[in-house]
Each structure stands twice: as structure tokens, then as C-alpha cells.
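User: quick one, fold this
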Amino acid sequence: MKARRLVAAVLLVGSALALAPAGARAQRSPADDEAVQKLYTGFFDALRQAGPGGAVAYLRLTGTLSPGAVEAMGGRLQAIQTRAGRADSYVVVNEMEIPHSLRYRSITFLTHHENAPVGWRLRFYQQTNGVWVVSDVDFELQFVEDFLRLPEVEFAAYRAVLDRLPTKSELRQMLKNAAESGR
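Assistant:
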């Protein structure tokens, strides 16, 4: 009997919270939305107009990532231009927030380049002083659709498995070795 009353009480409280007026729950601020949009627009405009060097300079200018992280990213970003070509546009694919934590956002983007698309995940964090910063930048050149479709943890596991698979040349060598040992 006590268990039924407890379940009923939990359901009643849950229903009351779900029906609470919008003002009673945490809400996104239009000013916060604008600050985050300004950050990603600046990043992708810099990438589009000045290439990887421009994107790195933008991150350095905003001071959002540590200098070491920005420098390490520079070489990785250069690979984009080498493989995919210059960026010409981007679209927001998905935006994720952690419930009841309006200070963190993860947004997934697709950039269109001369030769191939690139998937991006930018993470934003609102510091205690109220300023929004880019807290991390990740991108994918090879498995773009999966990067955009799968949750981050699933993609990381999927990518780790794919990275462990032998290459075509390794498979050929393995087959050649097997054939030779079978003689």
C-alpha cells in the first residue's frame, strides 16, 4: 500500500512539474542564443574567408581555447583544406543541451567544401562571468554521415573499431602470406 502511495505521489509531483508555467522552469535566453550564434558564425566565417589559418586566428582572438589546444588544432584543420578544399557554407544539423543546465551546448554542423563535406561538433560553455566561449572543436572528414547521425560516445566507439581494422594493403599482404604459408 505504501508503495502505491509513493508511486502516486511521484506521479502527481512529476505531473505538476511538467505542467508548471514556462516561467517556472529554466529557459534559454535570447541573449545567450545570440552569443553562441556569434561565436560559431565568426568561426565558420573565418574558416570560409581565410581557411584553417583564419579559423585558428579566430579561436586565438576569442581566447576561448588554451593556446596549446589552438596550435594543436591548426595542423588538424589544415588537413581539411588539403582533402576537402575551401569551405563555402555551413548548416546547423543538431543542437544539444543538457537538461536543467543552460550553460553548456553542443552543436553539430555540416560544412560544404569544394571537394567534400565535413562534419563538425562545437561545444560552448558559459563561464561564471556570463561570457560564452568555445570549449572544444571536433570534426570528421571520413565518416561524415555517421559523425552527424550517431551520438558522440557511439561515434567514438565506432571510429575506434574502424581505426583498428586492417587497410586494403594490409589485407592483401595477409592474404598473400596465408597463400604462401599454405603452399
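User: anything notable?
Assistant: DSSP finds six helices and four strands in the chain.
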